[in-house]
Amino acid sequence: MRYRRDMAGLNVRFTEEELDALRERAEAEGRSMQSFAHDAVLRAINEHSRLFNEAADHVLKVSEELNRRLA
């Protein structure tokens, strides 16, 4: 369950072309522009976290042998 302290807002500026593209994509999915943009931001946040975690795992695996020898 999601709890909200308040309904915080965020104003984001788009060019007319960007707004048109956003409107078209949202309409194609049968969604509001706000809902579409909200979900896109959350997907971007989650993707960034996933990429960071993958990179951290890679560094740990690559440096595992070196760390063992230095210990």
UniProtKB/TrEMBL annotation:
GO terms for biological process: regulation of DNA-templated transcription. It comes from the Bacteria. Residues 5-36 form the Arc-like DNA binding domain. SUPFAM superfamilies: Ribbon-helix-helix. It holds the Pfam family Arc. This is Arc-like DNA binding domain-containing protein. It comes from Streptomyces purpureus. The lineage of its organism: Bacteria, Bacillati, Actinomycetota, Actinomycetes, Kitasatosporales.
